[in-house]
Amino acid sequence: TVIIEHTAINPNKAAHIGHLRNSTIGDTFVRILQATGHNVEVQNYIDNTGVQVADVIVGFKYLEKKTIDDVKRLIGDPRLKFDYYCWDLYAKVSSFYETHDPKHALRAQTLKEIEEGNSDTALMAEIVAMTIVRYHLATMARINVSYHLLPRESDILHLKFWDKAFEQLKNKNAIFFEKEGKNAGCWVMRLES
């Protein structure tokens, strides 16, 4: 089986032409491999815990003072394109940071709460991100692009996959902790064979 991962739009706003281009390129690779007899699994990585999602949540919570119930009402409003609403809100958050939170403390706190996954902030992020993912999937369906699997970053974090992988990398000496030079204080992977 060949795995092709493509699209990976941050679930914080509507898909735009660049996303459609990337999806078309990815889907073309899928179709070429299928036509040449390969079994292909198509994945679309969902970064539902990233900065872009956090910024939209900052916009809902601190700029617009919305609760989870308010967000659910927006999602349920048939007159509203929720993914475009979030796109506009995301754009407004940059100005909000400049005037109200220049050190991005709210972003950092929101990211932490989303990653921990056990708060109203995390629930709001889950609702917003997965609603936008449904919009993305509908957009991709209109150009005949589909996926077999949608791996979510939140699942990787909560199942501690990274922690396990990091320990394996250290135990196999695939990475080392650099003590000197430009990479001092970083875990580094050797590129030579």
Given as residue ranges, the uncertain stretches (5+ residues, pLDDT < 50) are none
How many strands, which pairing sense, and closed or not: the largest β-sheet? 2 strands, parallel
Element order, helices and strands?
EHEHHHHHHHEE
Query: Beta-strand percentage?
Result: 5-15%
How far apart the termini lie comes to: 26 Å
Structural class: mainly alpha
Overall 3D geometry? Answer: globular
Strand line-up across the major sheet: 1-2
Radius of gyration: 20 Å
Would you give an account of this structure?
Helix 2 (51-63) crosses helix 4 (82-100). The strands form two sheets. The chain has a two-stranded parallel ribbon with strand order 1-2. It has a two-stranded antiparallel sheet with strand order 3-4. It has helices at 17-35, 51-63, 68-76, 82-100, 105-116, 120-142, 153-158, 161-171, and strands at residues 2-5, 40-43, 175-177, 187-189. The protein is mainly α.
List keywords for this structure.
mainly alpha; two-stranded antiparallel ribbon; 193 residues
How is this structure best summarized?
With 193 residues, this protein is mainly α. The protein has helices spanning 17-35, 51-63, 68-76, 82-100, 105-116, 120-142, 153-158, 161-171, and strands spanning 2-5, 40-43, 175-177, 187-189.
Helix-strand layout with pairing:
Elements: E1 2-5, H1 17-35, E2 40-43, H2 51-63, H3 68-76, H4 82-100, H5 105-116, H6 120-142, H7 153-158, H8 161-171, E3 175-177, E4 187-189
Parallel strand pairs: 1-2
Antiparallel strand pairs: 3-4
Helix pairs in contact: 2-4, 2-5, 2-6, 3-6, 5-6
